[in-house]
Write a structure and sequence with these properties.
The protein contains 16 helices and 23 strands. By secondary structure, the chain is of the alpha+beta class. The N and C termini lie far apart (about 60 Å).
């Protein structure tokens, strides 16, 4: 057996390839950003060909850095930004439009029409999801309605659809020359087109969104053999696929009901393992598939999805220019003792969990002449922690599970100021593992399990090691005061879009 497992992580702002050893430690990594395309307010797109090119570049780059070849990898896993929709020509491999990113809000009218008198919960009992612009099913409806010739190509079988994992798998395994058109249960569960109980595409949902079944990929378990790769990974089995947040749950070894993690990336995503029982939410959370290992029963999760967290730091950098590099935000925010009464609610794409308000837009509240760019930077970081607290409260309301510790991962967890404030505002310890990029690790774990590189989940649990923890130290009165002001700021964002 080869000594390593690879993971391709195609995220919202960048793509990377990572190589892990049997202990789950990083052997090599290569990462490259791709463009964020904003044709109109609320529209967010990616170039699928650019993403494809970045995939192959980072695979080659990581292997070169470590002095490895494809023969050194026992398997490769894929993880991805989940709800982003791609359509392409099955024969040529040519994308038929830019990818519509999960943050894109152009489907608001379609979502409202689908809800009708039943409202946003019309399909929740079947999909676990509220009707929202977030999900890829309505995005596919928009593409079919607006891309000239796409419906006729779909009817003839020439046009196909997939989320980014499907696009990656298809290209890794041959593309137009025999590439595999498939997805896994976690990504399929985020389309609004799959029944959570049967784990199959649902005819009623397809009919409501006017989506031809012929466009859709085959749905498979998260951990299992898909196909062999070609190109720089020639002969390596692709043996695992997980949407990025489910991959982080897997990488954090949250395998028991009640285990939870929070990933701090472009957005912020908290998942709570609910076991083989799918728990409906009355508090604005999503019921989703957490993972499926081979032919075992699927495991479900409750999820709180926050649209804008790390992306807000990028916005401070790129749109306002108040920091030169994203890493500079911690020093700037730490140069003041508190937020100076400033609250920043980044509802750039509306509010996601637990509010689900597409009419909301971003607000900076509490400004006075005292406020400086440092207070705005601190308010931007604190917004991530406040939004996470809202999700945690909703999880407790739905599940009755009171967290004793929050496992964290993602790019923002290197920010000590944010992590301490997160522990303070949650009033629970926050724990970071030694391998903070658990999204790629989870995809590697799923692939490695499928080929016997790891014997079972007990093998994976033994790899999990604490790197750092933060203990809550904020008085209750101060915490409640901050939360009360945050809730007032959130109210100011509502009903902005008529």
């Amino acid at each position: 057996m080869a000594d390593y497992v690879g993971a391709l992580d195609s995220g919202t702002t960048s793509t990377r390839f990572m190589v892990f050893d049997h202990h789950g430690e990083v052997v090599a990594i290569d990462q490259r950003e791709h463009r964020q395309i904003f044709p109109k307010p609320g529209w967010v797109e990616h170039d699928p060909l650019e993403i494809r090119d970045r995939m192959f570049e980072v695979i080659e780059g990581a292997l070169l850095k470590a002095g490895l070849s494809a023969a050194d990898l026992a398997a490769v896993g894929i993880t991805n930004q989940r709800e982003t929709a791609v359509v392409w020509d099955r024969t040529t491999g040519r994308p038929l439009y830019n990818a519509l990113v999960w943050q894109d809000t152009r489907t608001a009218d379609i979502v409202a029409e689908l809800g009708g008198e039943a409202g946003q919960d019309r399909f929740r009992s079947r999909t676990g999801l509220p009707l929202a612009t977030y999900f890829s099913g309505p995005k596919l409806t928009w593409l079919l309605d607006h891309v000239e010739g796409l419906r006729s190509m779909a009817a003839s079988g020439d046009a196909v659809f997939g989320t980014v994992d499907t696009w990656a798998l298809w290209n890794l395994t041959g593309g137009a020359n025999g590439g595999m058109h498939a997805t896994d249960v976690t990504n399929a569960s985020r389309t609004m087109l799959m029944d959570l109980d049967t784990l199959e595409w649902d005819d009623e949902l397809l009919g409501a969104m006017r989506v031809p079944r012929s466009m859709l990929p085959e749905i498979r378990p998260s951990s299992g053999l898909f196909a062999e790769a070609v190109g720089p990974l020639e002969g390596v089995p692709v043996a695992g696929i997980l949407g990025d947040q489910q991959a982080a749950l897997f990488g954090q070894t949250c395998f028991e009901p009640g285990d939870a993690k929070n990933t701090y990336g472009t957005g912020c995503f908290m998942l709570l393992n609910t076991g083989t029982d799918r728990v409906p939410s009355d508090s604005g959370l999503l019921t989703t598939v957490a993972y499926q290992i081979g032919e075992q029963a699927p495991v479900y999760a409750l999820e709180g999805s926050i649209a804008i967290t790390g992306a807000l730091v990028q916005w401070l950098r790129d749109n306002l220019g108040i920091i030169e590099n994203s890493a500079d935000v911690e020093a700037l925010a730490g140069s003041v003792d508190d937020n100076g009464g400033v609250y920043f609610v980044p509802a750039f794409s509306g509010l996601f969990a637990p509010h689900w308000r597409s009419d909301a837009r971003g607000v900076i509240a509490g400004l006075t002449r005292f406020a400086t760019r440092a207070h705005v930077a601190r308010a931007a970081l604190e917004a991530t922690a406040f939004q996470t607290r809202e999700v945690l409260d909703a999880m407790f309301a739905d599940s009755g599970v009171k967290l004793t510790t929050l496992k964290v991962d993602g790019g923002m967890v290197v920010n000590d100021l944010l992590m301490q404030f997160q522990a303070d505002i949650l009033d629970v310890p926050v724990v970071r593992p030694l391998v903070a990029e658990t999204t790629a690790l989870g995809a590697a774990y799923a692939a490695g399990l499928a080929v016997g590189f790891w014997d079972g989940i007990s093998d994976l649990k033994s790899n999990w090691i604490i790197d750092k923890s933060w203990q809550p130290a904020m008085p209750m009165e101060q915490r409640e005061g901050l939360l009360g002001a945050w809730r007032k700021a959130v109210e100011r964002t509502l009903d902005w879009i008529d």
